[in-house]
Design brief:
This protein is mainly beta. It contains 1 helix and 11 strands; from the N terminus they run E-E-E-H-E-E-E-E-E-E-E-E. The chain is globular, with a radius of gyration of 13 Å. The mean pLDDT is about 95.
Amino acid sequence: VQLVESGGGLVQPGGSLRLSCVVSAFVLDYYAIGWFRQAPGKEREEVSCIEYVDGSTFYADSVKGRFTISRDTAKNTVYLQMNDLKPEDTAVYSCGAPRYCDADPLHWGQGTQVTVSA
């Protein structure tokens, strides 16, 4: 199982980014995909997750209404659209593959840096 993130970068407050997590074939048939972030000196936080069974989604309160998770099974890709970004969203963002959104990921990507700064 492989997960590869991309799409991070430097953006001004209020801006947008779309992260991509490309996964191995068939992963989306058997695993949920979660987006996690970790800022320096802080614990890792799960910001969003999408279930493989029915596509239901979860969002942390800190990103609800600003971030949207989606998947394209034909492209083996899960996206995280991030709008109205704030400096406190600055972190390394990683995607992980748990069996279900309430579980710990069994597989991880390498992460991509998101920096929100003027």
